[in-house]
């Protein structure tokens, strides 16, 4: 009985230690965000890399998801003669959940891995140490711009994803399922509420923070040459996915728990 309990204890303590290191890293990064100087050029560069370059994959994901969702809701609703619920359910599902979550996951898969690989390579090739030697704070120069850019960019991407996702449902609903175009748009407008949009943008900003935080943390702390960089990249994506899904549940319960 002692061995299994010891293993569980070591795993638990190791997890707590990792959470502590991550929290300290996040606190250090946030402290540099709110203190000058702020490198606006680097922030703009990261916003371009995170936002514009992620737009195709986010847009395609939202379009196909919205179209498939409308098809499935129509099939399910037809069993109860409730085909008219398609526009309302699609817009609520896309704006509240699927737009922010799928957008966040797609960006995490692309951006967290890239950040971890870039910073990990800088770490193992001692470029970060060179910055310190030149009296440049790595957190101010490397980490803070990425966090700021991700928090600002993800809400923009999610707004676009929501629009494209609803458009995908509209295309399938009116083009294949025979729903009236004017009625579809009217029901969509009636069902969408301000709280849905606000919660979607809040989720996007939180997801953006975790995307940049996990990529930066694992890349910055990578060790062991090329193998260490590969491990950091994998850990960054996995931890970003977990953080996004966990924070999504927490925000959903807080905002819509009383509905």
Would you summarize the structure shown here?
This protein has 259 residues and is mainly α. The chain is 86% helix and 0% strand. The chain has one domain (44-252).
Structure description:
86% of the residues lie in helices and 0% in strands. Helix 4 (86-124) packs parallel to helix 8 (194-220), helix 4 runs antiparallel to helix 9 (225-256) and helix 6 (138-175) packs across helix 8. The protein has helices at residues 2-33, 40-51, 55-78, 86-124, 127-133, 138-175, 181-191, 194-220, 225-256. The chain is mainly α and 259 residues long. The longest helix has 39 residues, at 86-124. It has one domain. The mean pLDDT is 86. It is built from 9 helices and no strands.
Defining traits:
86% helix, 259 residues, mainly alpha, 9 helices
Alpha plus pi helix count: 9
Stretches where pLDDT is under 50 for at least 5 consecutive residues are: none
Tell me about the biggest sheet?
none
Mean pLDDT across every amino acid position: 86
Any idea what the shape is? elongated
| Number of domain units | 1
Sequence of secondary-structure elements = HHHHHHHHH
Alpha-beta classification: mainly alpha
Question: What is the number of beta strands?
Answer: 0
Helical proportion, percent range: over 70%
Q: Radius of gyration, Cα only, in angstroms?
A: 21 Å
Spatial gap, N to C terminus: 46 Å
- Beta-sheet strand percentage? under 5%
Give me the secondary-structure topology:
Blueprint: H1 2-33, H2 40-51, H3 55-78, H4 86-124, H5 127-133, H6 138-175, H7 181-191, H8 194-220, H9 225-256
């Amino acid at each position: 009985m002692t061995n299994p309990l010891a293993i569980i204890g070591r795993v638990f303590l190791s997890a707590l230690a990792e959470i502590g290191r991550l929290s300290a890293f996040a606190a250090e990064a946030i402290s540099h965000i709110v203190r000058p100087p702020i490198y606006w050029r680097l922030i703009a560069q990261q916003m371009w890399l995170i936002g514009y370059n992620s737009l195709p994959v986010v847009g395609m994901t939202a379009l196909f998801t919205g179209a498939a969702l409308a098809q499935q809701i129509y099939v399910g609703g037809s069993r109860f003669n409730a085909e008219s619920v398609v526009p309302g359910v699609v817009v609520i599902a896309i704006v509240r959940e699927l737009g922010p979550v799928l957008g966040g996951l797609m960006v995490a898969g692309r951006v967290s891995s890239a950040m971890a690989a870039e910073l990990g390579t800088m770490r193992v090739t001692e470029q970060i140490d060179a910055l310190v030697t030149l009296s440049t704070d790595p957190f101010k120069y490397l980490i803070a711009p990425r966090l700021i850019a991700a928090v600002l960019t993800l809400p923009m991407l999610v707004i676009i994803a929501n629009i494209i996702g609803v458009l995908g449902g509209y295309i399938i609903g009116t083009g294949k399922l025979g729903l009236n175009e004017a009625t579809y748009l009217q029901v969509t407008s009636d069902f969408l509420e301000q709280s849905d949009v606000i919660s979607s943008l809040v989720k996007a900003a939180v997801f953006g923070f975790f995307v940049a935080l996990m990529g930066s943390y694992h890349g910055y702390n990578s060790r062991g040459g090329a193998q260490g960089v590969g491990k950091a990249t994998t850990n960054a994506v996995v931890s970003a996915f977990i953080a996004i899904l966990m924070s999504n549940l927490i925000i959903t319960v807080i905002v819509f728990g009383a509905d």
